[in-house]
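Reproducibility note. Readers wishing to regenerate the assembly model reported in the main text can use the exact inputs given here. Chain order matters: entities are listed in the order in which they were concatenated for prediction.
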Amino acid sequence: MNEKIKKIAEKFEFQGTLTNIEENNQGNINKSYILTYKDKEERKYLLQKINSNVFTEPYLVMKNIELVTNHIKKNLKKTHDNIHKTLNIIKTKSGENLYTYTNHEGEKEYYRAFDYIDNCISYDSFKDSKNSKELAYQAGKSFGLFQKLLIDFPSNLLGETIKDFHNTKKRFNDLLLSIENKVTNRAYEFPKEIIDLISKVKECSVIVESLGKTIPLRVTHNDTKLNNILMDEETGVGIAIIDLDTVMPGSSLFDLGDGIRSACSNSFEDETDKSKIFLDLDLTEAYLQGYLEEMANFLTIDEINYLGVSIKILTYELALRFLTDYLNGDTYFKIKYESHNRDRFLNQYILLQDIETKLEDINEFILKTIKKVQTN
Ligand code: GN1
Ligand code: MG
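Running the prediction on these inputs yields the following structure tokens for the assembly.
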């Protein structure tokens, strides 16, 4: 058993005796462990080490999560919803949201814990699933419901855990800086792609430029990757949205665009076979259907008008981020091999080009669906 994690686990209000520690490698940012405890019954918990290079204010992250999950619990209760769940923080024995551990190098490590939500599965892609359309519908519905459950939560109560997280223009400037700084010589690998990305920055900055003006600030998740939905392993129903570190004031469009980019592309984010990288229109329509059933009545005209293009913008943004990290020598995203961020960038870049060819069809579908599902 991992002795360090065992010691850290002792600081939390877990019930029973620790019998197993399993590492979970799905996320690109934090480190996660599934802990099993036994007394009369078996219980599982999720213990996570927050990546404090990415989240420089871990206490703020936990405060946001506490506020948001309490609000979700209250609204689920109000609507007598016993199906959906949210994260439940397990405090330390001294009643804190975080345990701070000082390691051998004298650095501080921040740990937090949640109840483990069992009997669920999270997907990295629906590409091999038999019932992928139904799952995509559930995925859209899950993030739609998440937004709906927080619609009456005042966004100004939340702190910004990562500044400018979806500021597409800032992400673009970061790319330019990484080209200028030449930490690596890697920019020379992508002359054509970089020129193309430069040509798209204006049209891809429309959400951030309208945010707080024609596009309302809402409470949003901001990391609506497919594997952040826990789905019932038998029924496929979306049970809970996890990874709430980036829940902040933002635009509903960030969540919709990023959600479709992730759930409806036909491949994993690091797939290198070009022929397999495309946006699946059937999945996109199913996702939109699920999302709009929950949110259509709350969206403004401007939000509706930008729904389609948000898919392109969020894909563009992630392409910029993977490329920037590759040029900077891989300091942000966890990588599993040397050119991992290069492959991730190319994947999003190919996806971006494919999305551009499908936007007209997607927009048509959105208008048709809005009319059907909006109630007066
Ligand atoms: C990161 O932690 P994870 O894997 O859910 C990243 C997202 C990216 C995603 C791409 C805080 O998400 O913004 O879209 O990788 N999260 C952060 O795989 O940067
Ligand atoms: Mg995350």
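We highlight two features of this model. Residues 340-373 form the longest helix (34 residues). The chain has a mean pLDDT of 97.
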